[in-house]
Design brief:
Structural class: mainly alpha
Shape: globular
Number of helices: 15
Radius of gyration: 20 Å
Order of helices and strands: HHHHHHHHHHHHHHH
Strand content: under 5%
Helix content: over 70%
Largest sheet: none
């Protein structure tokens, strides 16, 4: 039987395939460290819902730092910048292993602060390096392969999320202790460090800094700012992501605290949602090819709104 993800991957040249493996490991790491399990871990150590709100806000808010990382991308190059920040962010995530010590010696508040510090450090360093992601992709993925690459990447990411979520549901069955949550975090750190090592095998991503060229400075922002169509697209996309954030920020807490679901059913529900994305993403791609991405995005937003 021909599996679409594998067949599409085989049609790509070697550099994009290597980047796909990095993307898969990166998704596993990200979902293990700052995915829905993070909310469950926070509640396990009795972190108040208001603190949980701060905790999960670090990821989107830290992405604002990308606006000032263009000089880093041009001076260091995407490859060097991403390898450094990907290693560092996973080392900072290791602070989470101090939570049991903080809890036993200084109480709940200390444990909460350690968890906040670990997640904040992870998110800030990630934001400092993630600006090199798309420039590097444009460097290693030929233009004729970009559509196939991005559709394959999305399908592969959803597949990894489904597998990881089901594994987490199995690990968290019954009444999980803190050790099981730390095991998931450890697996995420290991996957993240492997992805950083694998990045060294991906070609491209060299520095492009030119002191005489305006595109190497902050004046390059004026080019994007003057493009009205692009700015409309950015603002609309930002509003859409904001709508998603309201749901994503509340759904796990709602299932746990309002509906009194155990950890395993919550993770199974999350896995089911991601599985539905995996099973339909290919058809949405075909629909977008025939009817336009704008039409597909509109229907998707309506569907999300009705579902919410």
């Amino acid at each position: 039987m021909d599996i679409p993800v594998l067949s599409d991957c085989k049609k790509l040249s070697q550099p994009p395939r290597r980047f796909l493996l990095f993307s898969a490991c990166n998704v596993v790491s990200w979902y293990s460290l700052v995915g829905p399990v993070l909310v469950l871990f926070g509640r396990k150590i009795e972190m108040p819902p208001s603190w949980i709100g701060f905790l999960i806000s670090f990821m989107p808010l830290s992405m604002i730092l990308v606006l000032v990382t263009i000089p880093l991308v041009t001076r260091l190059g995407s490859k060097k910048l991403m390898i450094i920040t990907w290693v560092l962010r996973n080392l900072l995530a290791c602070l989470v292993f101090l939570v049991p010590w903080a809890l036993s010696t200084h109480g709940n508040h200390a444990a909460w602060l350690v968890l906040l510090a670990a997640v904040l450090g992870f998110c800030v360093v990630r934001a400092a390096g993630v600006g090199g992601w798309f420039p590097w992709l444009c460097d290693v993925v030929p233009e004729k392969e970009q559509s196939r690459f991005f559709s394959t990447e999305m399908a592969l990411a959803q597949f990894c999320i489904v597998v990881v979520t089901l594994a987490q549901a199995l690990i968290l069955r019954g009444d999980p202790g803190m050790g099981r949550f730390l095991f998931i975090n450890g697996f995420g750190v290991a996957a993240g460090l492997f992805s950083a090592v694998w990045l060294s095998r991906v070609p491209g991503g060299q520095a492009t800094y030119d002191p005489l060229a305006q595109v190497s400075s902050f004046t390059a922002y004026l080019v994007a700012w003057r493009d009205r169509s692009y700015m409309y697209f950015v603002v609309t996309t930002a509003l859409c992501f904001s709508c998603f954030a309201w749901i994503n920020a509340s759904v796990v807490l709602y299932m746990r605290d309002a509906l009194n679901f155990a950890d395993t059913p919550i993770m199974l529900i999350m896995a089911g949602g991601n599985l539905s994305v995996l099973l339909t993403v290919h058809f949405w791609g075909r629909f977008a090819d025939h009817n336009g991405t704008g039409h597909a995005a509109l229907l998707a937003m309506i569907g999300h709104s009705v579902g919410a």
